[in-house]
């Protein structure tokens, strides 16, 4: 059945006729706007191969391998749990403030130093130690036990109480990891990070002070508590500041299966990255360059505690494998990428599948053209649809709401989406990338429905923002937890047919979103669709609209589901947007 699906979608055709495709492309040099019949079919087939492959690659429980019957040299294996880390930070950091980046969430984010580069000594953390010699992750051992982290947290609470603090909360965390990048077969970077930190928040009445340190010595802990108290004495009173109500705190430990360390010696990481990149180069001679293939293995642990008696913590892991090939030459070059990210390395897609698919995506963008300005339906590919849901989360998060800086102020109980749209929050999914038994305030998390029948059922509130709004906390200090957008009946091909003629968007550029008004304008690239079929790639265009209208005009949510961070959603078809080009 699976082999038949692949054959139906053109894999055999594309593999068998790859050289013919290249000859067709080589003949094209006139730069005109009209494709002859043969070339048009070649374009369409190559693009469909890349994007219809996603229908299979997006199926979460499926691990598909093509055998000899399909006449291919490389197997395809699937996973979905990709995460756009930077987008996650950008869309949710406003909710809980910069100071929370010192708190429990940093047990995860500290490990990203190997991915996003060193942050220097920000707030006392030594985030990334870049090395040029192999450092095997053998043993994947933390420097501190959970028991030791709890002792440190208790020492902070005891000293704060001794110095007269009315209340105190603290987070103790450490993270280790490595990231290897290979480019054109050669090792480009080997980065190793080992990080630790303690954040302390104290309250003097309704005055709040926060300080942090990366020094775990007894003297440093005492000094950090004293610094937080000194800050509190000079801050303004805030009646909404303080710990959550004791009855809302998590009471019992919960195992969500979030810790799967990867015993990955650096030599094996290098070989894995090489295999990934080599698979991309093997797809076609038109793959001429690469931004590299990267392998990252990260693990972290934390303990969160407060003076109400709450103390809990756990270890987590997050691993990823990515590839970004470049195709073509000169001004006609194009790039694309793909990656797989999971808690458990056993759930990652194969290196060959990622490299192969990334190359096919890049090849499908060759000879992209511009469009004339028009209003048409727009289909956001699933990875980008997670960003649209992220914009909704931002707009109904407490920080935006109490500041009156959101276009969805007072939207509770109101219709925002069409009646078929449902969004649920599932914080206790096993191995979930955004799973947690409690939020950054220690408040117990629970399943809930955020949108039912298109109507907003709840906001995303921390203890503080809930008090500012005169509402109960929703257990979202630190952000959302595994948002699941209910899928419709259409797969990727079905969404194209439903759209008929319009724009398929596979890349967005810039951050042109005004959350006060909802105005939306971003650079885009993708494919022009005619008659329900992809016609040709497009670039250097802008899509524009207003988020209120975009949410209301959602025509379909596909079942080609992907997971990016805390969002799980398929491709989203929007009825009409302005596409600006020539």
Produce the secondary structure layout.
Blueprint: H1 2-8, H2 11-16, H3 18-27, H4 37-57, E1 81-82, H5 85-96, H6 106-109, H7 113-116, E2 129-131, H8 146-162, E3 167-183, E4 186-204, E5 207-213, H9 218-234, H10 266-283, E6 287-306, E7 311-327, E8 334-335, E9 338-342, H11 351-363, E10 374-380, H12 382-395, H13 398-402, E11 423-425, E12 448-452, E13 455-456, H14 463-469, E14 483-485, H15 492-499, E15 502-509, E16 519-530, E17 533-546, H16 547-552, E18 554-557, E19 562-564, E20 567-569, E21 572-580
Parallel strand pairs: 1-19, 10-15, 14-20
Antiparallel strand pairs: 2-4, 3-4, 3-6, 4-5, 6-7, 7-8, 7-9, 10-21, 11-12, 11-14, 12-13, 15-16, 16-17, 17-21, 18-21, 19-20
Describe it.
The protein is of the alpha+beta class. β7 (311-327) and β8 form a beta hairpin. 29% of the residues lie in helices and 28% in strands.
């Amino acid at each position: 059945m699976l082999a038949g699906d692949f054959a139906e979608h053109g894999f055999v055709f594309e593999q068998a006729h790859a050289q013919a495709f290249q000859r067709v492309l080589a003949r094209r040099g006139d730069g005109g706007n009209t494709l002859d019949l043969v070339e048009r079919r070649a374009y369409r087939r190559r693009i469909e191969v890349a994007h219809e492959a996603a229908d299979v690659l997006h199926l979460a429980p499926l691990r598909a391998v093509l055998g000899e019957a399909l006449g291919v040299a490389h197997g395809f294996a699937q996973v979905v749990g990709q995460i756009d880390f930077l987008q996650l930070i950008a869309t949710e950091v406003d909710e809980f403030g910069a100071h929370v980046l010192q708190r429990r969430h940093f047990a995860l984010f500290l490990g990203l130093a190997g991915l996003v580069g060193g942050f220097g000594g920000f707030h006392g953390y030594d985030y990334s130690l870049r090395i040029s010699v192999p450092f095997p992750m053998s043993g994947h051992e933390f420097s501190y036990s959970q028991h030791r982290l709890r002792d440190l947290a208790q020492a902070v609470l005891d000293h704060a109480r001794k110095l007269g603090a009315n209340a105190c909360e603290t987070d103790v965390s450490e993270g280790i990891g490595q990231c290897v990048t290979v480019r054109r077969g050669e090792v480009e970077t080997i980065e190793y990070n080992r990080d630790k930190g303690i954040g302390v928040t104290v309250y003097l009445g309704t005055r709040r002070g926060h300080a942090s340190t990366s020094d775990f010595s007894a003297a440093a802990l005492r000094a950090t508590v004293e610094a937080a108290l000194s800050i509190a004495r000079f801050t303004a009173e805030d009646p909404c500041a303080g710990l959550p109500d004791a009855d809302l705190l998590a009471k019992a430990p919960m195992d969500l299966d979030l810790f799967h360390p990867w015993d990955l010696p650096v030599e094996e990481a290098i070989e894995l990255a090489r295999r990934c990149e080599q698979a991309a180069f093997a797809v076609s001679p038109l793959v001429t360059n690469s931004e590299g293939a990267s392998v990252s293995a990260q693990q972290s642990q934390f303990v969160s505690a407060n003076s109400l008696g709450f103390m809990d913590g756990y270890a987590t892991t997050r691993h990823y494998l990515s590839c970004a090939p470049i195709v073509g030459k000169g001004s006609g070059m194009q790039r694309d990428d793909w990656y797989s990210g999971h808690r458990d390395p056993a759930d990652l897609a194969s290196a060959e599948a990622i490299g192969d698919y990334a190359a096919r995506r890049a090849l499908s963008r060759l000879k992209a053209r511009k469009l004339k300005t028009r209003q048409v339906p727009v289909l956001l590919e699933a990875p980008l649809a997670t960003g649209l849901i992220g914009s909704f989360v931002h707009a109904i998060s407490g920080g935006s709401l109490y500041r009156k800086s959101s276009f969805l102020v007072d939207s509770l109980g109101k219709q925002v989406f069409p009646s078929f749209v449902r969004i649920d929050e599932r914080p206790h999914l096993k191995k979930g990338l955004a799973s947690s038994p409690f939020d950054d305030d220690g408040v117990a998390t629970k399943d809930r429905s955020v949108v039912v029948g298109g109507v907003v059922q709840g906001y995303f509130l921390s203890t503080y923002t809930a008090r500012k709004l005169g509402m109960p906390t929703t257990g979202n200090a630190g952000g959302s937890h595994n948002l699941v957008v209910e899928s419709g009946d259409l797969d990727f091909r079905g969404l194209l047919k439903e759209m008929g003629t319009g724009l398929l968007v596979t890349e967005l550029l810039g951050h042109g979103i005004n959350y006060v008004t909802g105005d939306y304008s971003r650079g885009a690239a993708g494919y022009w669709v005619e008659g329900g079929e992809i016609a040709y790639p497009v670039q250097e265009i802008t899509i524009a609209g207003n988020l209120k209208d975009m949410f209301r005009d959602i025509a379909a949510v596909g079942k080609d589901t992907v997971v990016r961070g805390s969002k799980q959603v398929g491709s989203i078809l929007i009825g009409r947007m302005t596409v600006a080009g020539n």
